[in-house]
DNA sequence: CGCGATTTGTGCACGTCTTCACAAGCGCCT
DNA sequence: AGGCGCTTGTGAAGACGTGCACAAATCGCG
């Protein structure tokens, strides 16, 4: 409770509370903890041990404690963490104390779904505007929002500050949209288009590619199959192999 | 080439060519390389250097070379990689030589979009069946497929082998669906529901949470803002802070 | 008031991933 | 045929992330 100054981090009094720069891996897990904490709060828990929370979030308890310690969190030894307080802290660190405005570009198949996705609103975001380049889509109303032409982006951005841009266009259009977003001052982009975006330094891009996830699973599926493979059947997968590949007697890659 | 026995991996003669067990990080990048390679092939390139390919895929060239070396790939020094051959190799390793069947459970907002997403079909997957628990949705036709009740899963799975299950249900239903998928022999699951799934060993689960991506971006946004923050304005972000948090005077993070 | 049960916070060791830098190999040109 | 420039493949070092195991701290109870 005491207002005392923290040792360890020297000087520089009175500045913004200033986020400790967390390891990326930790940042990526915080939202997961947050979701678990909300569940626990709804279930009536006032405190939770690292063991319990880590189970809820599906991670190792030591990892969780280390993550929380990075943000200077106050747990109580012998008791655990105060659920409500921890929620506040994580939401603060993640910058969720203000409801951030999201602009969604591309209201095709996927964009349509994103525009209607409850998960955004319920977790601190507000879809502020929808855009598309296709004139026939402009004017359409989705979930109470009217689709505007992507060229109106500057006008909309001038009216309300857009924190995050979401790109749900086909790949060929994505780079141009990204440039437009950057031009109006957006510094965080979530890209659903299957392509790499080049953006100036200082702009963060995260990419979600649904097909890639499937391909990763496919690899493991393939791998499991090749391990289980009955030696007798000899080449179920092999037959599918194009001729050229047969030469790849991949040999042993330094093993172990 | 020589048929010689492989050292390192003992016994188990005559087995499938056997995937080298790649580092997870490498596996996650292979699909990205594959996409870049397809683009290059379409553009008429016959060979490509690691430098060129890595630029297309948005990674470091040394990393790319090491990744490719893991799968025993044959590049040619002084020339580069044969685009067509590399595509074949990566597709083989990822198990994309056979078009895998995907079962999609939950045709709500997101599921609907996934069912209509071209990216799956164009990259080696085939949506084999759609399911939902809501009787009012059963029978609906999406993209040429009829939505069936999730309880029909065993019947469908008996007819054709499902390689991957995709869960696009609300969180409360996800675990039950996962259990049902596992029960019919699915060993790879892509989960879009915001919750952790518990599955038996040997089953792979990958999770995609759209809100989490936004929250990660939000953190960086918040961080950038706190660094740029004019010291004079004193507390744009601070004012939003709930009382209890004020104690976290974590101060300036080592800067740089 | 002191003790034991409980749980956090963290030092340390280990494994994985990344990056640099360079030798080895290949093709082309003279 | 020989040399030169280019590109791959990889050793080694460093950064990063993970998980164990334990000391330090707190609470509740007798």
Secondary structure layout plus pairing:
The structure is a homodimer of 256-residue chains.
Chain A lengths: L23 H19 L4 E2 L1 H8 L3 H10 L10 E2 H11 L6 E6 L3 H7 L2 H5 L2 E8 L8 E2 L2 E5 L3 H7 L4 E4 L3 H13 L4 E4 L12 E4 L2 H19 L7 H4 L3 H4 L10
Helix pairs in contact in A: 1-2, 1-4, 2-3
Chain A binds a DNA duplex (30 and 30 nucleotides) through helix 1 and helix 3.
Largest interface: A-B, 108 and 108 residues
Q: Unreliable stretches of chain A, pLDDT < 50, 5 or more residues? A: 1-15, 232-256
Total DSSP helices of chain A: 11
Instruction: Report strand order across the widest sheet of chain A.
Output: 5-6-4-3-7-8-9
Classify the helix fraction of chain A into a percent range: 40-55%
Q: Output the structural class of chain A.
A: alpha/beta
Tell me the Rg of chain A in angstroms. Answer: 24 Å
Number of strands of chain A: 9
**What oligomeric state do these chains adopt?**
homodimer
Termini separation of chain A: 53 Å
Largest sheet of chain A: 7 strands, mixed
Percentage of residues in strands of chain A: 5-15%
The rough form of chain A would be described as: globular
Q: What is the average per-residue confidence, as pLDDT of chain A, rounded to a whole number? A: 86
Order of helices and strands of chain A: HEHHEHEHHEEEHEHEEHHH
